[in-house]
Amino acid sequence: MISRHHKDIFFKRTAQVTTFLCLGVLALLLYHIGREGMSYVSLDFLSNFPSRFPEKSGIKAALWGSFWLILLTGIFAIPIGIATAVYLEEFAPKNRLMTLIELNINNLAGTPSIVFGFLGLVLFVRGLGFERSLISGAATLSLLVLPMIIIAAREAIKGVPRTLREAAFALGVTRWQCTIGQVIPTALPGIMTGIILALSRAMGETAPIIMIGALTYVAFTPEGPLDEFTTLPIQIYNWASRPQEEFHQVSAAGIIVLLLMLFTLNFAALLIRMRTEKKVKL
Amino acid sequence: MNQQSITKPYEKAVVEVKNLSVFFNQNEAVKKVNLSIPINKVTAIIGPSGCGKSTLLRSINRMHDFEPIARLEGNIFLEGEDILLKSVDAVSLRRKIGMVFQKPNPFPKTIYENILWGPKINGFKINEDELVEQSLRQAAIWDEVKGRLFDSAISLSGGQQQRLCIARTIAMKPKVILMDEPCSALDPRSTGRIEDLILELKNEYTIVIVTHNMQQAARISDYTAFFYDGELIEYGNTSKIFTTPVLKQTEDYISGRFG
Ligand SMILES: Nc1ncnc2c1ncn2[C@@H]1O[C@H](COP(=O)(O)OP(=O)(O)OP(=O)(O)O)[C@@H](O)[C@H]1O
Ligand SMILES: [Mg+2]
């Protein structure tokens, strides 16, 4: 018979092995990509447009496209996301309709991104006539990240202790003043972390952007929100699907840049979280 | 119904509780209480855990507005005006009736901002530095924090935080200050300082304090109200209640025989 103790050890070992396996695969991936692409990463690579020649190819258009896309996505999604979270947590009545809305937000967070791409295609590209512009892309990505931002912001707002609200109310302030003056500032680090993670997810998304028809070969930087664009993941995908071996290496170089940016964002989120864990604990 | 012995203070009442009952769903936590709180005095509320002390206190500044299952019956008059009426604005009422909580709950902001947030958001015409210094002095914490007004209030000790919370309440210049076991999380030294402070403050404010500490009630209060199971059992002069209580039940509680 296997004792409880043995079972314990068995599960612990299994967990350790799978963890190391995952880390191993990740390390292998990074090593492979690094060996493939490192020789192509340079300042020129960042400042060149794509080209027929692998050595002259660069990600300038994709970088700017991604930058504009994320900026606009943030502008759309952050205010709406925070406002929704604040409303749901602080003001909404507790009734069936609200439960239904909550349920839907949670479901949307788990919806495959290609579905959002299709929605964006129908709604923004064709319906509202924004064509294959940055606006269409950003609006689509906003829909995709909104549930994530709302859920993260709600968690952060829920985490604000009741004692803090009572302290504010006891000074004769309205619910609104309490929300703006105490609740949101206290929840802000948590909200920020959620936003950063959501936007970094948006930065890596490919499927919905392809769906709404972002271009794969772009030799210009977008000038305004109505311009066409490409993004880093799409550029990477484009290079990877070419037959020449050299372009696969260029593609790997693109992945290196993308991963570096994503790691930086995630690290920033981690820093914010660590700093505030020390601070407010009432 | 328990026997009652209620002696109305002869001083003018600021707060007059009339036939107040508080229900949480079906549970009657405060039962037909009549209590008159005299001006510029310290009134202590004592009684075993769960007898409705906090519930009564929180009725006076309408904190139960945030508790959907709470229902209040009866009246509470503040200077003659029934503050339980729906037409009374609870927000502006709370400017007149401040509250200090059991656990110190400073805002996660600087000491300076902790004092000023209330008065500023309410649009009071103030001289900021002056109000900060004055409130902190009145709360007997000025000397300890004057060099670090822009540090986070979270960095203060528990006792300092509680005095900061008192300072924050004073800065609103309320008429009444409600305190719900303000010393229960503090060491004897901080407790002593806050007791001294309460004695200072009663010159300007009317104070109602809930406490589990009999010696504390005896030391600082002028009137004592003993509650049991939601009912006001005995109310009168503190010295009288602690030396010659009318009712056996009160005597038993004070001498530590139950509760
Ligand atoms: N928000 C609430 N919801 C439901 N019931 C409550 C609520 N607050 C208090 N009660 C109930 O009301 C009764 C009185 O509680 P209250 O907190 O006023 O007691 P207390 O005298 O302050 O006790 P303690 O000395 O432990 O603080 C208790 O039975 C409690 O369960
Ligand atoms: Mg209590």
Provide an overview of this structure:
- The complex is a heterodimer of chains A (282) and B (259).
- With 282 residues, chain A is mainly alpha-helical.
- Chain A folds into 2 domains: 9-39; 55-281, MetI-like (MetI-like fold, Orthogonal Bundle), CATH 1.10.3720.10.
- Chain A is 75% helix and 0% strand.
- Chain A is built from 11 helices and no strands.
- Chain A has helices spanning 4-37, 43-47, 60-91, 96-109, 113-127, 134-158, 162-169, 175-204, 207-211, 232-240, 245-279.
- In chain A, helix 4 (96-109) crosses helix 6.
- The relative contact order of chain A is 0.15.
- Chain B has 259 residues and is an alpha/beta fold.
- Chain B has a domain at 5-104 and 174-254: Rossmann fold (3-Layer(aba) Sandwich).
- Helix content of chain B is 34%, strand content 27%.
- Chain B contains 10 helices and 11 strands.
- In chain B, the strands form 2 sheets. Chain B has a 7-stranded mixed beta sheet, with helices on both faces.
- In chain B, a hairpin with a 2-residue loop joins strand 10 and strand 11.
- In chain B, helix 3 (111-121) runs parallel beside helix 6 (158-170).
- Chain B is globular.
- The model of chain B has no long low-confidence stretch (mean pLDDT 92).
- The chains are: A mainly alpha (282), B alpha/beta (259).
- The structure holds adenosine-5'-triphosphate and magnesium ion (MG).
- Magnesium ion binds next to helix 1 of chain B.
- Magnesium ion (MG) binds next to helix 1 of chain B.
